[in-house]
Amino acid sequence: xxxxxxxxxxxxxxxxxxxxxxxxxxxxxxxxxxxxxxxxxxxxxxxxxxxxxxxxxxxxxxxxxxxxxxxxxxxxxxxxxxxxxxxxxxxxxxxxxxxxxxxxxxxxxxxxxxxxxxxxxxxxxxxxxxxxxxxxxxxxxxxxxxxxxxxxxxxxxxxxxxxxxxxxxxxxxxxxxxxxxxxxxxxxxxxxxxxxxxxxxxxxxxxxxxxxxxxxxxxxxxxxxxxxxxxxxxxxxxxxxxxxxxxxxxxxxxxxxxxxxxxxxxxxxxxxxxxxxxxxxxxxxxxxxxxxxxxxxxxxxxxxxxxxxxxxxxxxxxxxxxxxxxxxxxxxxxxxxxxxxxxxxxxxxxxxxxxxxxxxxxxxxxxxx
Amino acid sequence: xxxxxxxxxxxxxxxxxxxxxxxxxxxxxxxxxxxxxxxxxxxxxxxxxxxxxxxxxxxxxxxxxxxxxxxxxxxxxxxxxxxxxxxxxxxxxxxxxxxxxxxxxxxxxxxxxxxxxxxxxxxxxxxxxxxxxxxxxxxxxxxxxxxxxxxxxxxxxxxxxxxxxxxxxxxxxxxxxxxxxxxxxxxxxxxxxxxxxxxxxxxxxxxxxxxxxxxxxxxxxxxxxxxxxxxxxxxxxxxxxxxxxxxxxxxxxxxxxxxxxxxxxxxxxxxxxxxxxxxxxxxxxxxx
Lengths: 369, 288
Prior knowledge:
The structure holds 2 protein chains of 2 kinds. Chain A is α+β, with helices and mostly antiparallel strands. Chain A has 2 domains: 4-15 and 22-233, P-loop containing nucleotide triphosphate hydrolases (Rossmann fold, 3-Layer(aba) Sandwich); 243-361, CATH 2.40.50.140. Chain A is built from 9 helices and 25 strands. Chain A has a 6-stranded mixed beta sheet with strand order 6-7-8-3-9-10, with helices on both faces. In chain A, helix 3 packs across helix 4 and helix 3 runs parallel beside helix 5 (142-154). The radius of gyration of chain A is 25 Å and the shape is elongated. Chain B has 12 helices and 2 strands; from the N terminus they run H-E-E-H-H-H-H-H-H-H-H-H-H-H. Chain B has 2 domains: 10-48, no CATH class; 62-256 and 264-287, MetI-like fold, CATH 1.10.3720.10. Chain B starts with 9 loop residues before the first helix and ends with a helix. Chain B is flat. Chain B has helices at 10-37, 52-59, 61-91, 98-111, 114-124, 131-138, 149-177, 181-189, 194-222, 226-231, 243-253, 257-287; strands at residues 38-42, 45-48. Chain B is mainly alpha-helical.
């Protein structure tokens, strides 16, 4: 178990990177705490697997260092780093039995026989594979095979970290939930530092203490699931987390209100004037609501309404810009005169995609003059 | 439950393939069966002989000799070519420009007509003018494949290894290339040694192609004719007379049609049997 430090770490798959775009991973400095579960979340090609392979030692970074508990590991092999990794597709040794698969990393490390047997028996129980211990691993189902891959990491009690590279991709949906629960349980029990790569936000948000959102080779935000939902630091986080993602509307800032295509929107705080940069207003569909005739609101036109079960998603248009509104169950949508209101405390202002800190917060909100 | 009427038209669709198989396999094979059960003295005159030719063949020391030499030859080249092929495949680069260079080099011997292979080695191994033969003698070995049985065997085996190891290499290489990187990465993380990687990842993943390689090499070497015929003509003496060469001698040289036909049938059944035994033995492991 170890604290992991990334020190000016960057990686390019080109031998002589010149431009920023040549880097699969742009320079980053982070400190990841011992014993926590981190999820690396991002779209395909954002650099999350690259980062994972650098941490595990399968890939040497082009620049920067990686430290475990302050010790420089940059040039060390995966074995010396003492980490375990579970891959996207289950890796099992076909010709071995389930039990032999689990003891393989211990046999390779010269652990004595009695200890091996003890740990393997225990691991088989933990993974609920005891009844299949002496079967050939080849004939098992995908999720059982993935459990074996995981078990091969966990039998080594002293691993510094366990890394997961989209481990549930090939698992049936109903087994995904079970395996994820198992992972959480194992994390609580053994307290390993876990790093979990995924492009599935549900997986990331349910598994991790902290979610690391990556976009185009950069970490755009590290935060708890709540933080990512409530206060995305980057428009990408807003858009990527949530279903549907955050509404991002180009706007002009006027202190305590913003103008979206001619419509004033009251903000929860005062912002300084910004010129010469792209300013956008972000509001989650959960915090937009249709208002009745007696209230003030922004006029919209409805394009479609999709019923997704728990609620409906109205796709509307505010001026030129599309906007998603989540309509809770039981709430009617009026036949005409559609207007919406934003929860002003939940509005974020983004300058060139990064969240802008307000000058000062205000209490209450009145209509702009 | 209604009984579906049997559609006899389906037979028409099977007809073309039946015809082809009949022409290229069943009719020739049955002709040989006919010959093996009858004696003939002039065209169109046949006498039924029952199993006489089979008894003759099975009890003849000449057949035993050829059969023994055949199994010895096949055994030797399988023992050399399969491990050597795997070793070469393991040593070949996995990516980069050298891959195609290696593949082309490997494919070259396979592209040469068999009789040309025989002719090449015939000259290459001549003790007075051939590079190999002259070289060996120059190094102090008394080597003359036209006179010494051991030298003849050495040359025939070496020629076959040169000619056919590539096939095993290419098949094994294809098997190796299909192993995903994650397996090697996982093995690294599990702290596996290079031997463990070979034993538990590469060998199991190559198993299927190696079965194919083994079967192909068994059948081809068991039926070998052209190369040794051109190289040594079965000699010196009978020392490199394998089954095919013996068969051709009996059928064409001596015009013993009955004996030759009985030999052919036995030969065919043996090849079939050994292939079946190999195949079932190796596939059994997969099912359990």
